[in-house]
Design a protein that fits this description.
The complex is a heterodimer of chains A (about 325) and B (about 190). By secondary structure, chain A is an alpha/beta fold. Chain A has 10 helices and 13 strands. In chain A, strands 4-1-2-9-8-3-7-6-5 form a 9-stranded mixed beta sheet, covered by helices on one side. Chain A starts with a strand and ends in a 5-residue tail after the last helix. Chain B has about 190 residues and is α/β, with parallel strands linked by helices. Helices cover about 45% and strands about 15% of the residues of chain B. In chain B, the strands form 2 sheets. Chain B has a 5-stranded mixed beta sheet. In chain B, a hairpin with a 3-residue loop joins strand 3 and strand 4. In chain B, helix 2 crosses helix 4. Chain B is globular and about 45 Å long. Classes of the chains: A alpha/beta (about 325), B alpha/beta (about 190). Chains A and B meet through strand 9, helix 5 and helix 6 of A and helix 2, helix 4 and helix 6 of B.
């Protein structure tokens, strides 16, 4: 499946309206906001149809997956939006991650557990809040929408240390920038090591740079360290996305893709968006002087003009200078 | 070449041994503390086979009507679910109208379970951060130590508290201390 899909679920008392943008969406937030109610309404509609008194408006089929026979049931769902409520421990399993990777469905999962087997985006973690209410035929309808839980941080100060997710091209680029500013830059050795890396750091101000497209499972514990450390996170989709977005690559088609990536990213083919952006950048620069390799950054990207373009692009995304 | 399966199995045994050792140590420590009249909230982070995971289902099949009748439960229900208790079997919720107790939120059901079955261990990751202060209050007013299982980093707020993290047997006094330990175990 690809594209963004609006889902409206309503009865005479409640109305939910939200848009699902990519293969994995996580629902969490406070208790009693209506996550289970939303999923139960979808379940009742799927089972009883119009006789349930519940209306589900979506161009894709909305279904609910439960613990019993989940593997068998999941095989039957094609091109659907699959909702899973809290209390289903299977969502943490590798088997489930394998099924998600192979399927052409989108998944909306209500859980506070960090699902380390699934590469979900920080931008697709939502809570539910009530925005307004009105009376309708003696009943009360609450209009709900989803809101982002993890917002981009403000960069007020220059960091003492920069931690980059891995040692690939992103680290090589940011390390070069850090050297010029006399800042220590450290590769974390993978996204799951960032928490440990920040925790062990003795520097005063720490900047974390990671691919937001797959950082969802890590965001909670890394962000929680704000209680103990002066730390900010810069989490763009990916380093490749930053290059594509900087205007360094001149392609008409690029701006259209970057404006609405979900229209071009087939979930069955790309488990997470950063893989798509890596392929896109590699393909667009193939056989050119900017030929991109993820493991070793082409020295052309360090040249004054090219570097300045990427840095400007980063500043634009971050809202200010980050290094 | 070493068989990776053997290594995996050996790691699992080591983990289970450590887990049993910590629980055993906690048990002895708990008896000593109870004798001195000191109570504390204990948290075990990560997977815990003993903990009841699907608290909503467990609540639906085990709750007693009188669990909703005391003032403390009524306050929790009002605070979390914005609902007023009508009887032991029904509440009036701001959002849903009159509903049976089984339609309460998953977080509130877990709070009621922790409060009324303090000797059992429940998966408190079914609770949002709006339940955190109530978990601390339950631990404060309970006659015995409370143990919960968390699979995420619950935000207990910026105040002072005393929580024992069972994974490494340490006591933390605020969120700054808690987050520096909890993240290793979720």
């Amino acid at each position: 499946m690809k594209g963004s899909h609006e889902v409206i679920v309503q009865n005479k008392r409640l109305r939910y309206r939200f848009v699902v943008h990519r293969n994995i969406t996580i629902l969490r937030g406070d208790s009693a906001t209506g996550k289970t109610t939303l999923i139960e309404m979808i379940k009742n509609n799927a089972r009883e149809g119009i006789e349930s008194g519940i209306e589900v408006i979506c161009e894709k089929k909305c279904v609910v997956l439960e613990k019993e026979n989940w593997e068998r049931n999941l095989k039957e769902y094609k091109d659907s939006i699959v909702f899973i409520d809290e209390g289903n421990a299977f969502v943490k399993s590798e088997d489930f991650a394998t099924c998600v990777k192979k399927s052409d469905n989108y998944y909306v999962i209500a859980t506070r557990d960090s699902l380390f087997n699934l590469p979900y985006s920080i931008r697709e973690i939502y809570g539910i809040r009530n925005t307004s209410g009105n009376r309708y035929q003696g009943t009360k309808r609450l209009y709900s929408e989803l809101y982002h839980l993890y917002n981009k941080d403000a960069f007020a100060e220059k960091p003492d240390k920069v931690i980059v997710e891995d040692s690939n091209s992103a680290y090589q680029f940011f390390d070069e920038l850090c050297k010029r500013e006399g800042i220590y830059c450290e590769p974390a050795g993978g996204k799951s090591e960032i928490y440990r890396c920040v925790q062990k750091s003795r520097e005063d101000r720490i900047l974390v740079i990671a691919d937001g497209a797959a950082f969802g499972p890590e965001i909670e514990r890394v962000m929680s360290l704000k209680y103990a450390k002066k730390m900010v996170c810069f989490l763009p989709e990916s380093f490749e996305w930053l290059i594509l977005n900087s205007g360094l690559i001149k392609e008409k088609e690029l701006s259209v893709i970057l404006e609405n990536p979900s229209d071009f990213i087939e979930s069955e083919r790309y488990f997470s968006w950063e893989r798509f952006f890596t392929k896109l950048l590699t393909d667009k620069t193939k056989d050119s002087y900017l030929a991109y390799r993820k493991d070793k950054l082409n020295p052309t990207y360090f040249q004054e003009v090219n570097r300045a373009k990427i840095v400007n692009g980063i500043q634009e995304v971050a809202g200010s200078k980050i290094i | 070449m070493p068989n990776p399966c053997i290594k995996q199995a050996s790691n699992n045994f080591e983990r289970q041994d450590t887990y049993r050792y910590l629980l055993g140590r906690y048990y002895v420590w708990g008896i000593m503390r109870s004798q001195k009249g000191i109570k504390m909230l204990n948290i075990y982070y990560g997977d815990m086979p003993e903990a009841i995971y699907n608290t909503s289902l467990y609540f639906d099949n085990t709750y007693y009507d009188n669990w909703l009748q005391d003032d403390f439960s009524k306050k929790m229900i009002k605070s979390v679910d914005k609902a007023v208790v009508l009887s032991g079997q029904a509440v009036e919720s701001k959002a849903l109208g009159v509903i049976p107790v089984t339609k309460l939120s998953g977080g509130l059901k877990t709070l009621l379970l922790i409060s009324h079955q303090p000797h059992k261990i429940f998966n408190a990751s079914t609770c949002g951060d709006n339940c955190a202060k109530w978990i601390l209050k339950i631990a404060e007013r309970c006659d015995t130590d409370i143990t919960i299982n968390l699979r995420h980093i619950m935000d207990f707020g910026s105040g002072h508290f005393q929580i024992r993290i069972l994974n490494n047997d340490t006591v933390v006094n605020n969120m700054s201390e808690l987050v520096q330990v909890a993240g290793y175990y979720i």
